[in-house]
Write a structure and sequence with these properties.
The protein has helices at 2-34, 41-51, 57-67, 70-76, 99-108, 110-120, 140-162, 165-181, 188-210, 216-226, 233-252, 269-274, 277-292, 300-312, 319-328, 335-365, and strands spanning 394-397, 410-413, 452-455. Helix 3 packs across helix 6 (110-120), helix 7 (140-162) runs parallel beside helix 9 (188-210) and helix 11 packs antiparallel against helix 13 (277-292). The relative contact order is 0.11. It is mainly α. The longest helix is centred in the first third of the chain and has 33 residues, at 2-34.
Length: 456
């Protein structure tokens, strides 16, 4: 009899604990929903719909499906940029062994390239079909967008080699369109893909702007298309909202699918659910994300510090609290690295806009500006272009007269914001960083060469 009473009492205790945790979580979710924040898959899907457009969706899907096919993989594999060849591409004017093969490849996919160029010139975020399934949501078209950006990068390279400025401009603008296409998806990985593609566009803009290959009108269009990437708050908030909407279900019932939990949690998933630990963890996770949404992005240095502080705020209290923290880590976003990538993207984007404005100033005045302050005449608010160390990027105009056609008439520079052993406290160098030989391949979107622009 005592055993029966104990079992009944224990079951009642567990039921009270679980229902209390469930009620507490539901109260928090109701509060978040009242603020217009997503709390589950359906509300996250609504957010995705609000941030995107279905314009030209069929054309996007047709192209991306072709670029994801086995035939395309087979045809592109022996080429740089679109395939597996890692050898650098010579600069315009230099001999390139694979150029004829690359042109033939582009003719083979001319229909797809034309369609991609047409739909990527003016687009914003695209509403690709997604089946929202908590943290297990698949993003096939997000990943396939890299292939679209790569074929346009190859188009840009080939256009530059034959001196076709309009063809090069449309290719670069299309790459920006590919980066914008993923920007409305409420997932950290989607935003990271967008940043990576943006890095490809910046490299091609750098090549064109340094050699002064584009017209004033083309530069103006590219500058306008880059402006969304100066805003890091939008992707930051979008990603956090998506995390808030998709993580709750997985944390409440971590055994719903394989893959979320490693041992020892996987074997204890039922206990986590019935003990209410999952609901308590989900509430705490929601509270932390709600706090992260309040982090401000205007000052880059404060932004990184606040994100790092958020990451470090772990409750080191009771065993139960530590279990909640450990379980929450399976869904917790890598905010430290993500915030650094956001800052890098903005600083790289700012440098590109300043370089474009410098060329616009030259078109308008017949000479390069003596300093960045003169770029205010091109409609720039320079207070929006401060680097991580709160300085403007560096700029110097070469006043010497030289017959060297490769000499820089002006140098614009910034710096890598991620700390390293060589640069533990990143800051703007007082003089331009060393010049690096520029090559064109697909290995890295953000390279040291991007932080120095040599305007010929």
């Amino acid at each position: 009899m005592l055993g029966l009473i104990f079992c009944v009492g224990s079951s009642t205790t567990w039921w009270i604990i679980r229902t209390t945790a469930e009620r507490s979580l539901n109260e928090k979710l109701s509060s978040l929903a009242a603020k217009g924040l997503p709390i589950d898959d359906p509300s996250t899907a609504i957010l995705h719909r609000e941030l995107t457009s279905a314009q030209n969706l069929d054309q996007w899907l047709t192209v991306l499906n072709t670029l994801a096919s086995k035939d395309y993989e087979s045809q592109s594999g022996s080429l740089p940029i679109v395939g597996n060849v890692e050898s650098p591409i010579p600069l315009p004017g230099e001999s390139w062994q694979e150029e004829a093969q690359a042109e033939q490849f582009m003719r083979q996919y001319a229909i797809e390239v034309k369609s991609l160029l047409d739909i990527s010139q003016y687009n914003g975020p695209v509403r690709f079909p997604l089946e929202f399934n908590s943290v297990y949501t698949l993003l096939p078209y997000t990943q396939n967008m890299r292939a679209a950006a790569r074929i346009l990068q190859l188009e840009s390279v080939l256009a530059a080699r034959v001196g076709d400025a309009e063809r090069e401009f449309r290719a670069i603008n299309g790459i920006i369109g590919c980066a914008l296409a993923n920007r409305g998806e409420p997932f950290f990985v989607s935003q990271l893909v967008s940043f990576a593609i943006h890095g490809i566009a910046i490299r091609d803009i750098q090549s064109a702007a340094e050699s002064n290959r584009l017209t004033a009108e083309q530069l103006a269009k590219l500058r306008a298309r880059l402006s969304p990437f100066s805003d890091i708050r939008s992707p930051f908030i979008t990603s956090l909202k998506g995390e808030l909407g998709t993580a709750t279900t997985a944390l409440r019932n971590p055994g719903m699918q394989e893959g979320l939990l490693d041992k020892p949690f996987a074997s204890a998933s039922k206990l986590i659910f019935h003990s209410g630990l999952g609901d308590r963890t989900a509430r705490k996770h929601a509270e932390r994300l709600e706090a992260a949404l309040e982090i401000q992005t205007e000052d880059l240095q404060s932004f990184l510090a606040d994100c790092e502080n958020w990451v470090q705020q772990n409750d080191s209290g009771s065993l139960v609290r530590r279990l909640e923290d450990s379980l929450g880590q399976y869904c917790s976003p890598g905010l430290s690295n993500f915030s650094t990538t956001l800052v890098r993207t903005k600083m790289s984007n700012d440098l590109a806009i300043l370089a474009i404005a410098t060329r616009q100033f030259e078109f308008a005045n017949g000479h390069l500006p003596a300093g960045l302050l003169e770029l205010e005449s091109q409609g720039l608010d320079l207070t929006q272009f401060h680097c991580l160390d709160r300085n403007l990027p560096g700029y110097v105009r070469n006043e010497s007269t030289t017959s060297d056609s490769d000499a820089s008439r002006a140098i614009l520079w910034s710096f890598e914001p991620k700390p390293s052993s060589d640069n533990p406290v990143p800051k703007l160098p007082s003089s331009p960083p060393p010049r690096i030989e520029k090559t064109r391949n697909k290995q890295v979107e953000f390279e040291p060469l991007q932080w120095r622009w040599d305007l010929k």
